[in-house]
Write a structure and sequence with these properties.
The chain has one domain. It has nine helices and no strands. It has helices spanning 3-23, 28-56, 62-80, 111-125, 131-134, 137-160, 165-193, 195-219, 228-244.
């Protein structure tokens, strides 16, 4: 896939999600099923396809960079409060049902939250400067599927926190530009720093995605209660990853 097509996709998807939330009512159950499917698909593609390909490149310290990406995501989620998982972590009274995406306890989205989301998306975008990664339809689809509920959650938080339309769209636009800027940054520095730079960027992104995808799957069964629909959705996501990775 060309760089231009990738930039347009990564730019347009969050804005489309924002428009959907503003003009349509989102069904929390459907969003959670989409989360479970995207998490399972992304985990399958990452483990079955992207990790083996990354190790086959024979660049040193791949494992360290994957671990660094995993730990970076742990830090980022401390500030983003789980929007990368398609919802926001909030403290609920005892006995309350699952949390839906809701306001962050402030009339506006904290700047540090937007910065953490920007860093996350920017880091994800860099590896796509590599034609091998950008041309991998399964991996591109997995990341885009992950970004859709993430953008829906961000747009929902902005809407419920009472942010005006202008500021809401500006925030979504900043978030939407993160991944395309990451791709362009990867192009700019990948040529001068060489293949090892883009392989390291891919390893960091994989570490982040491993954290997110596994967390999404675990969170799809809150309190370890079995849910047949979500379980089937996860299985379908894994099966699709197996089919598309071979």
């Amino acid at each position: 896939m060309s760089t231009t097509a990738l930039v347009i996709l990564f730019l347009a998807l969050p804005l489309a999600a924002g428009a959907w939330v503003r003009f349509k009512t989102t069904d929390p159950v459907q969003v959670k099923l989409l989360l479970a499917f995207s998490g399972a698909f992304l985990l399958g593609v990452t483990v079955l396809h992207m990790l083996p390909e990354l190790y086959a490149r024979e660049h040193g310290d791949v494992g360290l960079w994957v671990l660094a990406g995993f730990m970076l995501q742990v830090v980022l989620e401390f500030f983003s409060r789980g929007i990368e998982h398609g919802h926001v972590h909030v403290h609920l009274p005892a006995g309350t049902a699952e949390a839906e995406p809701r306001a962050l306890g402030s009339p506006t989205l904290p700047v540090i939250t937007l910065i953490s989301l920007f860093v996350h998306s920017f880091s994800e975008g860099m590896p796509f400067a590599d034609p091998r990664v950008g041309g991998d339809i399964a991996f591109v689809s997995g990341v885009l599927l992950h970004k859709l509920p993430m953008a829906i959650a961000l747009a929902t938080v902005l809407q419920r926190s009472g942010v005006g339309p202008g500021r809401s769209w500006a925030t979504l636009a900043v978030f939407a530009m993160a991944a395309p800027l990451g791709i362009l940054f990867g192009h700019a520095f990948g040529e001068s720093l060489g293949e090892a730079f883009l392989s390291g960027a891919l390893a960091v992104a994989i570490g982040m995605l491993l954290h997110i995808s596994t967390t999404i799957i675990f969170e799809s069964t809150p309190d370890h209660h079995f849910n047949a629909r979500r379980f089937i959705t996860v299985i379908l996501g894994v099966l699709l990853a197996i089919v598309t990775s071979h």
